[in-house]
Specification:
Strand order of the largest sheet: 2-3-4-6-5
Pfam family, one: BBS2_GAE
Radius of gyration: 35 Å
Mean pLDDT: 84
Strand content: 35-45%
Keywords: Cell projection, Cilium, Cytoplasm, Cytoskeleton
Organism: Scophthalmus maximus (Turbot)
GO biological process, one term: non-motile cilium assembly
Largest sheet: 5 strands, antiparallel
Helix content: 10-25%
Low-confidence stretches: 324-330
Distance between the termini: 76 Å
Subcellular location: Cell projection, Cilium; Cytoplasm, Cytoskeleton
Number of strands: 39
Structural class: alpha+beta
Number of helices: 6
Length: 664
């Protein structure tokens, strides 16, 4: 529980997400924020009467506690912290679309002023990886750049899209900080210096990131979603109709575990459990929240949570003391209990009313009863663009009998606006099948959570069927059966240690393939860009593969043979003891084992025949290589080829066939 302990009204509007606290003289925390007209204000109530020197810093005519820093261009980001090794206090860093300024507020002097060609959308200050000195890292247009105290560029790398949020913390648990980057392509990327080590995909622009504790961090999206990750695993998330303007980690109940504090566009401030997302505190400012920070602003040894609004309102909070906390918690607990009981009462009354109406309907006309074999069936298919409709994936939802589907509700992350879609056919168009066009914006797998209202043609009440269907990652690619199409101009070739059947299995899991595709050689049309994607596979090292399969099958058959001997002994023991139940059970198991052995023998036989065919083709190739020579060189080539096969040296075999010798 938090209690407000001070409120300030500053006569300056504050830009959203541009608020920080810095101890610029090494002692007194100062609230610092970007304001309009290319200025940054520094609120320092601890040093009244001290007039700043003349350089960039000037005194506000409206408030004696505020100094103004003139940037002379629109501020896009700012932060404060320890940058230099020998500085008195924190350094203020201010970014714009063209420059980065590092400013010593205490001495009223520039530390450095650097041009940044990719802009500075967001900034974070701290140590990264093995780089010794702290860095001011800015995220701009698809680029990340880090500067030390002297303005030297010690870090640079690229990322997928415009960077919107940054945070530094030990993500991997190796004792060194990694850089987490949130961008406009919906991805959260983790960099160990310039190496990408992890990636998480969300469904909107990642606007804010904050470290909580350990490997856990909070995030906020442009669509009003906030949540918590622990490394790559998402713990929870919630979505609001308002936008999350700022998130911050703060321990409000003194239990040693921080909560996620969120400031919203409607002025609401709430604190949520890092484990469940449950709201444990909330308050309201009179206008949209601009930023949430923390610091000992009263210099009493206690760290306050400080929330600011875009209109210049500042409110400080402290965790409630033990006495006050008891009263507040008792009152809050009573209110929560009353609210919960009232909500439960309404739900029970509504449920009772539904039971009564169902009973009346069933007694009078029997409406609402559906056949026992009713089930929900789904199918996904790719639909190319037509004159009437653009390219899409069609989700077909149907029932196997005369029942009708009255409505369909689909929840899917990142596909529909608001993450849900409702299909509600008119009464004239009711049937047992509903078709929903889906256009995934990106190549990511998505779970479709489907709820359908199913009933009879004259039903007034319906049964709710629920089913989950996964949309494959590359569902917006249609198979191209036109063999005359020109192949793609670009290509990449690589080796994998998988059989063609495994590749076909992967294709079926990640694409919407028609039935009967059993070859990994497939060409697709991209329904988004219209280009071609061609996949082809040439098998190498078949002899080794068949040998490996042969050994595995032989070992499996040996295990089954031993198992059969044990089973026969157990079956005969049970028969002699007149335990017919166990006897039947053991002979049923023997029957199943025998069937498996027969199937394995067939597989082994086919594998053996394929192995012989491969060996024959290898031997034929060696004979042909020998026929290219005469006399003694012919015998030498054949002998050298067979030695290369014995030593399993494929590269040497190719060289001998080509040049007649193993030396390159």
């Amino acid at each position: 529980m938090l209690v407000p302990i001070f409120t300030l009204k500053l006569n300056h509007k504050i830009n959203p997400r541009m608020v920080t606290i810095g101890k610029f003289d090494g002692v007194h925390p100062c609230l610092t924020a970007a304001t309009q007209a290319g200025k940054v204000f520094i609120h320092n109530p601890h040093a009244r009467g001290q007039r700043p020197a003349a350089h960039r810093l000037s005194h506000s005519t409206q408030d004696s506690d505020i100094s103004l820093l003139n940037i002379n261009q629109a501020v896009t980001c700012l932060t404060a912290g320890k940058l230099g090794p020998n500085t008195t206090g924190d350094t203020l860093l201010v970014g714009s679309q063209t420059n980065l300024l590092a400013y010593d507020v205490h001495d009223n002097a520039d530390v450095f002023y650097r041009e940044v060609s990719d802009g500075a959308n967001t900034i974070v200050l701290g140590k990264l990886g093995d780089i010794r000195s702290p860095l001011a890292i800015i995220g701009g247009n698809c680029a990340l750049q880090g500067f030390d105290y002297a303005g030297a560029d010690h870090f640079w790398t690229v990322t997928g899209d415009n960077v919107r949020s940054l945070v530094l913390f030990d993500f991997t648990g190796d004792g060194k900080n990694e850089l987490l980057v949130g961008s406009e392509d919906f991805d959260i990327r983790v960099f160990k210096e310039d190496e990408l080590v992890s990636e998480m995909t969300e469904n909107e622009t990642v606007t804010s990131l904050c470290h909580m504790h350990g490997s856990r961090f909070g995030y906020a999206l442009a669509n009003g979603t906030v949540g918590v990750y622990d490394r790559n695993a998402r713990y929870w998330r919630i979505k609001s109709k308002n936008h999350a303007m700022s998130i911050h980690a703060f321990d409000l109940n003194a239990d040693g575990v921080v909560e996620l504090i969120t400031g919203w566009s409607n002025g609401k401030i709430d604190a949520r459990s890092d484990r469940t997302g449950e709201v444990i505190f909330k308050d309201n400012l009179s206008s949209s929240v601009a930023g949430v920070v923390e610091g000992d602003y009263r210099l009493d040894g206690q760290t306050q949570l400080i929330c600011t609004s875009i209109e210049g309102e500042v409110r400080g909070y402290l965790p409630a003391g033990k006495d006050l906390k008891g009263n507040l918690m008792d009152s809050s607990a009573e209110q929560d209990l009353i609210r919960e009981l009232s909500h439960r009462r309404q739900n029970l009354l509504l449920e009772l009313r539904n039971y009564e109406e169902n009973a009346k309907v069933h007694l009078l006309i029997g409406v609402g009863v559906i056949p026992a074999n009713t089930q929900l069936q789904t199918a996904l298919s790719v639909r190319p663009a037509t004159e009437a409709q653009k390219a899409h994936v069609e989700l077909s939802i149907s029932t196997p009998n005369e029942t009708i589907i009255r409505a369909v509700l689909i929840f899917a992350e990142g596909i529909f606006e608001g993450e849900s879609h409702v299909v509600h056919p008119s009464v004239q168009n009711l049937s047992g099948c509903a078709r929903v066009p889906i256009v995934p914006p990106k190549d990511i797998p998505v779970d479709l959570h489907i709820k359908a209202f199913v009933g009879g043609k004259t039903s007034t009440q319906f049964h709710v069927f629920e089913i989950t269907r996964q949309l494959p990652r590359f569902s917006m690619y249609d198979v191209n059966f036109d063999s005359s199409a020109d192949p793609p101009t670009g290509s990449v070739t690589f080796s994998i240690s998988e059989r063609p059947q495994r590749v076909v299995m992967w294709l079926n899991q990640n694409f919407l393939l028609p039935e009967g595709v059993e070859s990994p050689d497939v060409t697709f049309n991209s329904l988004r860009g219209g280009g071609l994607l061609s996949v082809s596979m040439a098998s190498n090292g078949q002899v080794d593969e068949f040998h490996s399969v042969h050994q595995k099958l032989t070992a499996a058959m040996a295990d089954h043979s031993n198992y059969i001997r044990n089973m026969l002994v157990q079956a005969e023991d049970a028969r002699l003891m007149c335990d017919m139940t166990t006897t039947k059970k053991r002979y049923r198991e023997l029957y199943d084992l025998n069937r498996d052995l027969v199937n394995e023998y067939k597989i082994r036989s086919n594998n053996h025949n394929a192995l012989l065919a491969c060996l024959k083709s290898v031997n034929l190739a060696i004979q042909r290589a020998g026929r290219l020579r005469v006399g003694k060189p012919k015998n030498q080539v054949i002998s050298a080829c067979r030695d290369a096969i014995k030593s399993n040296n494929v590269n040497s075999l190719f060289r001998i066939m080509r040049a007649g010798t193993a030396s390159s």
